[in-house]
Request: fold
Amino acid sequence: MSMTAQLSTASGVNHVDADIKASGNSLGIWAMRVAFIALVVGLPMGFFQAAERSGLFPWLESTAVYFASTTTHGVLLAFVLTTFFTMGFGYHTMAHSINKKAFFGWIGFWVSLVGTLIAAVPMLTGAASVLYTFYPPEMAHPAFYVGATLLVVGSWFWVADMLIGFTQWKRENPGKPVPLVMFAIAINALMWGWTSLGVASEVLFQLIPVSLGLMETLDPGLARTLFSWTLHAIVYFWLIPAYIVMYTIMPKEAGGRLFSDEMARIAFVMLFIFSVPIGFHHLYLDPMQAAGWKLLHMFGTFMVAIPTFITGFTVIASLEIAGRLRGGKGLFGWIMALDWKNPVVLAGMLSLLMLTAGGWGGVINASYSMDVMVHNTQWVTGHFHLIFGGTTVIMYLAGAYWLWPKITGHALYSKTLAVWQLWLYAVGMVVLTGPWHALGLAGQPRRVSSTPYNQFPEVVASWGTYELLMVIGASMIVVSGFMFIYNLCKTASSKIAASEAEAKVEYAQAIHPPVRVPRLLNSFTFWNWAMFAYMIISYGYPILQFAFIGTPGVIPWGY
Amino acid sequence: MSSIHIDPLEKKWIWAVGTIVVLTWIVQLYYAIADSIHPPSNVEVIDSAKLHMTEEFAEKNLGVKKEEDGSYTVTMVAARYGFYPPMIEVPVDTKVKLRIASFDVLHGLHVPGSNMATMVVPGYVSEVTTAFTKTGDFPMICNEFCGLGHDYMYAKVRVLAKQ
Reply:
């Protein structure tokens, strides 16, 4: 690779006006504070659940507490942590990459926060134990649905902010490529807009009216179909910020260059297109959709392998550049030459490893014919903890280690503690999810608080050995979560100023910094229409059918 | 004219990944068509509040029936917190068609180690056809959260040797 000539030029530092910087930093850190409070409250609940369902601590067992905890754990980590992290990261990115101030800003933040607090009351008092996937016709307290809706509505202000900033910048800079980091966060915002429509329709037209008694019955088949619209793409809404850290921050932190700016854009565009119209792999075993539609969604589901593997290639190639610049030789020597003591680099490596393992597991879930063996078993829990907890959240943690000194102006309290924390987190995640995959293959269902199948003692006994491992893994994750929060708090209250390098917001530069890129890789218009068409094809009839198949209404139930 | 740089190695990589995706499509399509492996997808509605008033799901008609072609049809109801009838007996290596409806909320069922699995969604009849390949007693576990008694919801499948 002959890139040395270009390496001395170009910088990823952009001019930012002081007031825009202040606004982006302030929105960024406040949204992330909420996100990480959700994390540190949600993690011990996960540990409790692992311990409770293991059967090793009989004095701990309580079905009611377990399902209230599961619901809260899911909502806090999958909805609150992710939405607030992504909002905060987006506000910070918009200020620092394109020098734009959020138009709505705090409105979105407050609507989402108030929604979260409203939903927290019924969740914590056990009045909303319907899990974060809702599960009508079981009904929770209306405040749960109203609060969850406000959380999403708040995020729509953020979506508007990202798209307004993106559009304004393009108008002021005709023909210039939007900086990759902003391109990616804006396409994530657009995708979240599309994604959230499914669950929003379910909640607004079915769950809130029924929970308030305004409607007597609902169609759970329609509710599940609408939820599937959201259920897979929301995973990419969580994952894309992690990929953004890998593409635009990690190469710089590693001391190298981004291997390809254009391939990164292609990957993000593909993630957008193949995110939403493929949700039926969550409904493979549901009776209310015909097989042909499931097959169609399967084809699209597997397409996501392409942007995933492009990401793997581009990100690893970027790391290889860094490794070789640091003196690494040979086929694998560059790996050892990487800066394993840099939290972003370390998190990225661990994240990619867990993505590889979790991705292969996901191939089974997504398979039209093999899903039946693992559907709703612990395999699925193992899969999404590896992809979400492992691959995604570890990059949020790395992002926070990167951002905290930049926003607070204080040096990171302890890089060593951060490195130990990330190792402990990743090892804990593997120790937790490995046994879950085994338990799933052995048929243990997910979403149970105990396994009292005492007519089948040999089946239950075959699961026993894995239960202890699961508890050990969960405890490692909880400890590492506290280490993370401790490090951030100590950083915020530190008296040591961040070094210039630590305080500077600098995104990775590509080997070939793009001068012009094709319109399709710099604009969303075409892709937005493509999404519209693809959604009509894949969700049009499957939703319309509920207007004429005549499902008798199903009455709501408590739990 | 704007151009994009794709490294030749990355191009090969994308071709390889594309080939893998197409192969996974072909394998799944092949088994779906050749072995007729499809997930339960019969799109058949029913009034969950009136199951007991239908012919098929009335209590006296639940259970195992032998069809004229030698296959078996099992009719069951899923209701908090059990499957009814709570035990079924079917022969090994014989086609078994399960038809099941929910009396109340969402349920799911799975007989670990077999392809007997489906969601049970109120308002719909689920139908799944398989053949058990091993004899013995197996749990049929509810694998979808259906309320605070969900843990205790399971039935027994007894697979008998062929006579």
Remarks:
- Residues 1-9 of chain A have pLDDT under 50 and may be disordered.
- Chain A touches chain B through 80 residues (CB under 8 Å).
- Chain A is about 70% helix and 0% strand.
